[in-house]
Amino acid sequence: MRGFDASEFQSRTERAQQRMAQAGLSALLLTTEPEIRYFTGYLTRFWESPTRPWYLIVPATGKPIAVIPSIGAALMATTWIEDIRTWSAPDLTDDGVSLLADALCEACPMDAVIGLPDGHETHVRMPLANLHRLQDRLGARRLGGDDGILRALRMVKSTDEITKIETACAIGGRAFHRVPEIAGEGVALDEVFRRFQMLCLEEGADWVPYLAGGAEQGGYADVISPASPSALVPGDVLMLDTGLVWDGYFCDYDRNWSVGQAAPQVRDAHATLVEASDAAFEIARPGATAADLFNVMNAILSRNSEDTGAGRLGHGLGMSLTEWPSLIPTDHTVLEPGMVLTLEPGIAVGDKILVHEENIVITEGAPRFISARTGPELPQI
Amino acid sequence: MRGFDASEFQSRTERAQQRMAQAGLSALLLTTEPEIRYFTGYLTRFWESPTRPWYLIVPATGKPIAVIPSIGAALMATTWIEDIRTWSAPDLTDDGVSLLADALCEACPMDAVIGLPDGHETHVRMPLANLHRLQDRLGARRLGGDDGILRALRMVKSTDEITKIETACAIGGRAFHRVPEIAGEGVALDEVFRRFQMLCLEEGADWVPYLAGGAEQGGYADVISPASPSALVPGDVLMLDTGLVWDGYFCDYDRNWSVGQAAPQVRDAHATLVEASDAAFEIARPGATAADLFNVMNAILSRNSEDTGAGRLGHGLGMSLTEWPSLIPTDHTVLEPGMVLTLEPGIAVGDKILVHEENIVITEGAPRFISARTGPELPQI
């Protein structure tokens, strides 16, 4: 099923409002795509255009209030939101600031603190000059942080959210399964990237916001560079890492293939990566922390080397490609049922690296793979 | 050719520095993908991840300084940038703020004003709490606006930039030409969207960040909604509007088709749209303003109705899907050679709308279509 029942948005809103009361916040002011979609279901690719700001107010009680460009009114009216205030954007003189200030003043008492998400992995998506103008218009009402409310809420997914992420993972799995159709000796890497995105779409992705990867001899130097036009040659390790979207939710996992026979150290590295993600999977239960998952993986990855230079070894996943928490030594977030995580160990092989990634769900008991669990053997194409 | 010669980045930097001197700015601080890519050529899809902030300092003289997560160091080192400072992100205690503050203090005198893009169509992509921490670390140095420098520079494209946009337009044109292969009576609209993205990739797009459109009887209600699973039926007008990317540059234009025979008022509406974009094309020369293009289109569009509810009738285009200027009555930006614009007239037909869009380049003399100019006749599938 696409979308959510209105009860999902009502529940999200009520949970936010409970936390707002505890934090002394009279309203939340939200400006980014996942923040606004979280409370409304407003799903559109139109966010690709940086021209227009969009605002959502979560008041202390009642439904959220949308303050948006008129071009979005028809689509917002199809959601559970009732109070939709619009202006004709872009307006070079007053691009929604007065309308937003009026709505906030109406929703909040004179001494209100209004929370904007301001912590890690957030930004405020509006012109900075307009943020200052807004503060001037609010009088004694003060713009502050959101006390981590969005982070806390979004980090734990509902059953319906998990189903959407699983659907995205299944689409990715079918596309990965078909990689031998499109990749092999002599095919240029940029052509592999193009054809793989086509496979994702053919298998049911709505769109493919993210594809990264690499292919070099015995590993790859880097996992964020654009695809080169070099043809695959025997001894290359091809890696594809996709964040495709179904109904607004991402999968984010990768797969590796050896072009022809792999060297023993490459096969060993792949087996070690899978050993690491399996070890993290084993302990990924309520009560364990993000740091615990890092540590168990890092112990395996660093068994044969002093410093693997390991950065983050996984992260949250959902409406965004990457979300809180981070699997790093200093993130002591305690796992809870409903969290969706990537396990993403990386290992050095000479001057190259190999990275492996799976997606899992935390449950009351043992976790569950939602990407098709990989075995230790590096497949050959 | 992919990428740019280093001379392009040098020229962009020098032009920025001239404007910075005039505006009394000691440095620019840039945080978003197109801003950082404009001065570096740093091209990656990794920006899809909201986790990590990225910073670029354009000092008063010399090359820009990158202050970035270490995961980006290898790719940034392939650009013309030499001073690359990294930290292991995410760092939950100090996520690059001290490193950035130190770099700014080194690059700027004690009484400096440091310019962040803060105007229309911008935002600051870093956590708001970290922006406040940064200001605290800068002492008397003050964070201010960029005086519109990024807007002024990016709005006028170089020859090499225009070539990339033309390449994207040509790919889009080949994909649009093949729409009859994938769309027709009985095909679901969401399947048309999927197949069209596949065509864009097959014809050479690197990725397809944007696809919008619609298909309803005699027009469409809205142009930003996700595709419905409804099958096309005779009398539907199908519209596809794509922002595909080649080497980091967008095209942004649309095409309409009638499923079976179109009603006379629909055919007339399409012809009127093309008449409007042709009329704007005729006057799109240096010295005319963005508002002039709006006015000439709006006069034609409103010939047979009092209020067409016309919003923006076009905009700039380049590294982003939409850029300055806006073709609205209040945008008096004077056209210059090198500007790339969309002409995007819309018209109401009963309770539906039709939208048409072309991409053009402003030159010293007559402008040039870079999308394949459409004739007045609405094609039928």
Automatic annotation (TrEMBL), chains A, B:
The keyword Cell wall biogenesis/degradation does not apply. Its EC number is 3.4.-.-. Residues 164-364 form the Peptidase M24 domain. Keywords: Hydrolase. InterPro entries: Creatin/AminoP/Spt16_N, Creatinase/aminopeptidase-like, Creatinase_N, Pept_M24, Peptidase_M24B. GO terms for molecular function: hydrolase activity. Residues 12-156 form the Creatinase N-terminal domain. The keyword Hydrolase applies. It is an enzyme of class 3 (hydrolase). It holds the Pfam family Creatinase_N. This is Putative peptidase. SUPFAM superfamilies: Creatinase/aminopeptidase, Creatinase/prolidase N-terminal domain. It comes from the Bacteria.
